[in-house]
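Q: I'm writing up a methods section and want to include an example of the input and output format. Could you take the sequence below and give the corresponding predicted structure tokens, formatted cleanly so I can copy it straight into the document?
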Amino acid sequence: MDTQPLFDARARVLADLEARRTASAEAVSFLEDAVASRTWWSEQWPEGIVYVAGLVAQDVQDALLETSGRWPLCLTCEGPPHALYIAPDLGGPDPVWVCEESGDVVAPLGGLDPLPPA
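A: Here is the clean output for your methods example:
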């Protein structure tokens, strides 16, 4: 099995966690768990490897929601805080972050803008 898409998924999600200052030990642990889970998943369905990056991002998003809250938050809209989500729903083959309020594409997975300085 070609593991490069899994390494790519890990790197892209980690880049977005770091961009939004969410790369805590807990978040990285969620990321490692998601990659491990999707490794098994991609072994069962090799043709689905094109979806793995978006699915890993969704897995991390779900895990963080249960412990830390919504991630990542939209920085482009005004108003109450709201999250971004991965599109297309299955996560591939070219996953992007989309604003849940406006429906606008904000960034490709791995390309979120960093938070402004505190």
